[in-house]
Design a protein that fits this description.
The chain is of the alpha/beta class and 416 residues long. It is built from eleven helices and 17 strands.
């Protein structure tokens, strides 16, 4: 049986990172995906990237791996460093296998950014890579992509398209998380891992409820913006490590507080590790004695536990707490929506101050405080998955209507 082979090499520097090649048989064709780190300056691969001593290619971080669906291990072979989250540094044996696979390829296809890796690469859009490889007619073809095989990798989409043509093998390299943590001497075994590259969202919940948070950043959610959002929320004192262009000649590792680094320009593609020794356990219920109360009414713990349970709040939910009072229910909701956001709506100035105090005290920085009258202020809030109404000021119908206009499937709980 005539066999055609496809080899995919991803480019990315240590997560930002190492080239990744995917290999497999596609109906008589093999597609390989492996990760390497960038090649040394001055070296330039011909048909395939050649591994230096030790079999490890110096990789350069490329954005493809850090796209909305790709981001912790970046594979990239680049002689010149591009901003990236990190570098994926491959195991020597994997590097050698990947280089051999590329060297044997008759045709190489790559996006413009990755084309430098191989002198003979034909440039095309990422969306065209699989089709071009299948249609080229070569017995052995190589695809250059960025992305780590196990984390938001572009190789996954190519693999799906190529699987119809045969078996696929994956060769992994080190992620930018491994690379950065090794550089700074901190373990990542209990870290919370998030990707903000090309995505909406923030790290407020992750940092509030985890001692260590590793994040891939880029696009609008770049490191500087993320640090500023942490500082604005009250987390400006947390320790942050930033790694940019990891594995490339322009590699830089920075350390500082979120407030300090919010003022420091950074590469568009970079990774960060946030340390919060004051993180709280999101699985611990909020008890009455944990709250600052003053004279503002508060929902008792047994009642709020039942109410929150009935709402079925999920980790990534957006939640409204209308008539938040002291924030007793608010912070219970915030722990349930640990990767989401809770909007505490309150008109009373004294209550607003108490919510701010309790946010600092309980560490629920994924709570956003909104002062104003409902339903008027609800128009500017994001659509809710869940709504708790603790106080309506006589506008219960209007508040419920406002929530259902935003999301007809919103789950609503009202305490009378």
């Amino acid at each position: 049986m005539h066999v055609r082979q496809f080899f995919t090499k991803s480019a990315r520097a240590a997560d930002m990172p190492g080239p990744v090649t995917v290999s497999g048989h596609f109906s008589n064709q093999v597609f390989e995906h492996f990760c390497h780190s960038e090649q040394s300056e001055g070296s330039r691969p011909s048909n395939a990237a050649r591994a230096p001593a030790g079999g490890i290619l110096q990789s350069k971080a490329l954005r493809i791996t850090d796209t909305p669906s790709s981001r912790t291990k970046r594979s990239a072979f680049r002689t010149h460093g591009y901003p990236a989250h990190g570098t994926a540094v491959p195991h020597p044996e994997s590097s050698a296998e990947a280089a051999q696979a590329l060297a044997s390829a008759e045709m190489v296809f790559a996006t413009e950014r990755l084309a430098e890796i191989c002198e003979n690469a034909q440039i095309c859009l990422f969306s065209e890579l699989a089709e071009r490889a299948i249609a080229c007619g070569a017995d052995r073809a190589a695809l250059l992509v960025s992305g780590d095989v196990g984390f938001f990798s572009a190789a996954g989409k190519l693999r799906e398209k190529l699987l119809a043509h045969g078996e696929v093998r994956l060769f992994c390299g080190l992620s930018s998380m491994q690379y950065l943590c090794a550089k700074i001497g901190i373990s990542y075994e209990n870290a919370c891992i998030r990707s903000l590259h090309g995505r909406k969202g923030d790290l407020l919940g992750a940092v509030s409820y985890h001692e260590k948070t590793f994040a891939l950043t880029g696009g609008d959610n770049n490191v500087q913006f993320v640090c500023r959002s942490l500082a604005d929320a009250g987390l400006g004192g947390v320790q942050v490590y930033i790694g940019e262009n990891l594995g490339s000649p322009r590699e830089r590792v920075l350390k500082g507080t979120a407030s300090e680094l919010a003022e420091n320009p950074c590469a568009d593609l970079a990774v960060m590790l946030v340390l919060n020794p004051n993180s709280v356990n999101p699985f611990e219920p909020v008890r009455d004695e944990m709250l600052t109360r003053a004279k503002v009414p508060m929902t008792k713990e047994e009642v709020r536990w039942v109410s929150v349970a009935r709402l079925g709040v999920q980790p990534g939910d957006t939640v409204w707490d209308v008539g938040a009072g002291t924030g007793a229910v608010t912070f219970e909701l915030a722990r349930k929506a640990m990767d989401g956001a809770v909007f505490a709506v309150e008109r009373n100035t004294e209550a607003i101050e108490l919510i701010a105090q309790n946010r600092q005290k309980l560490g629920g920085f994924n709570v956003h405080i909104v002062q104003g009258h409902a339903p008027e202020v609800l128009a500017d809030l994001p659509k809710p998955n869940c709504v708790f109404v603790g106080g309506s000021g006589g506008n219960m119908r209007e508040i419920i209507e406002a929530a259902l206009i935003k999301n007809p499937e919103a789950r609503i709980a009202v305490n009378a």
